[in-house]
Design goal:
The protein is of the alpha/beta class. About 50% of the residues lie in helices and about 20% in strands. Strands 2, 4, 5, 6, 9, 10 and 13 form a seven-stranded mixed beta sheet that branches. A two-stranded parallel ribbon has the order 1-3. Strands 7-8 form a two-stranded parallel sheet.
Length: about 350
């Protein structure tokens, strides 16, 4: 009887062990089947952003979405303008999340990539840009318009290198804003009294903030969303300067005062939207990715929050990946809806191709 009981127990154990051993292959097959059904399976997606660290965040969010669609993600490259657009147009890259719709018109026109590139979606709306000066000097000398800097006495108030000209902290060479600033200096007759300081924007802005904290006057180009807006606050630390009239490079001549105004102030730069730009061949071959690009959005408020976190030291690739994952978790229902719609587009395209 004892031997029989022992045999039953051993048999039960063998059955349990056998069941445990056969379960993983079934799970693996299911996982592989799920992956095979994803529209991006077998495709590597290649992207790039500029050297502005804030741009890593939206790139990570977009890439996580592509991962959910089954794509392999190549490490994003760090390339400046206009080289990013050239690389996408030539098929060396597939997309970039860093397109300023109106500001980058001259870059797109100059590279002649319109037949190879497509701009789609609205990643972030309400992008504002223009010139600012510290409020104290603006109030003291009643400076409201950049045209007033044609007066050498006014210009000298912003002279940081003792050459008699105002130092305007501007953009990286090649950026869309750099082209507009150079155009403005000529259009508003400021070439004799204003000097455009070009270079790495973040380094220039850091120096500008230091000079402001030391009590010096500042004159600089800025855009929002960006952490600068949380450090130098409008109407508290700084004021926007108006321009006498709207004047933009020839590629943007169709834009009007309405396109460059905010709260009845003509800031001279287009109020803009940040969009995704992609290679047309990649989009034709990857309808699910195209639909994802069209759907995903990140608010300007969320971009400002991320920019401030980066400025406060949470700026490693691991940090930014974590921030992107947090953002997705906080917007999970919306994110999941976009992914499901993109998957549906991919499935529909596959069925069409099989018919």
């Amino acid at each position: 009887m004892k031997q029989f009981t022992l045999s039953v127990v051993l048999a039960s154990l063998l059955v349990s062990i056998s069941a445990c051993q056969t379960a993983p292959p079934a799970t693996t097959e299911s996982t592989e089947s799920t992956k095979a059904a994803l529209p991006g399976k077998g495709v590597t997606a290649r992207s790039a952003h500029s050297n502005l660290i804030e741009e890593h965040f939206q790139t990570e969010i977009v890439n996580i979405g592509l991962e959910e669609l089954g794509y392999r993600i190549a490490k994003p490259q760090e390339i400046d303008y206009p080289a990013i657009y050239l690389a996408v147009a030539n098929g060396e890259l597939d997309y970039t999340t860093i397109n300023y719709e109106k500001t980058h018109i001259p870059i797109l026109e100059n590279i002649g990539g319109a037949d190879k590139l497509e701009v789609l979606g609205v990643l972030t709306s309400d992008v504002i840009q223009g010139y600012q000066i510290n409020k104290k000097v603006a109030d003291e000398y009643n400076i409201t318009n950049i045209e007033q800097l044609k007066d050498p006495k006014i210009a000298k108030l912003f002279d940081s290198d003792s050459d008699g000209k105002a130092n305007l902290v501007g953009c990286n060479p090649g950026w869309g804003c750099e082209l507009i600033i150079e155009h403005h200096l000529e259009a508003y007759g400021l070439q004799d009294t204003v000097e455009h300081d070009k270079g790495q924007y973040i380094a220039l802005i850091a120096d500008t903030i230091t000079r402001y904290q030391q009590g010096e006057n500042i004159f600089y180009y800025t855009y929002n969303p960006h952490w600068v807006a949380t450090t130098l606050k409008v109407d508290e630390d700084v004021l926007w300067l108006e321009v006498p009239f709207t004047s933009l490079p020839k590629e943007q001549e169709q834009l009007t005062e309405q396109d460059t105004s905010l709260d009845n102030k003509n800031l001279g730069f287009p109020t803009d939207r940040q969009r995704i730009i992609a290679n047309k061949e990649f989009l034709d071959a990857n309808p699910a990715a195209k639909r994802w690009f069209e759907l995903v959005t990140i608010s300007a408020e969320d971009m400002n929050k991320e920019s401030l976190r980066i400025k406060d030291g949470e700026d490693s690739p691991k940090d930014i990946r974590s921030h992107a994952e947090e953002w997705i978790e906080q917007n999970q229902e919306l994110f999941d809806g976009w992914i499901e719609e993109a998957k549906g587009t991919g499935k529909a395209a596959l069925l069409d191709s099989e018919q």
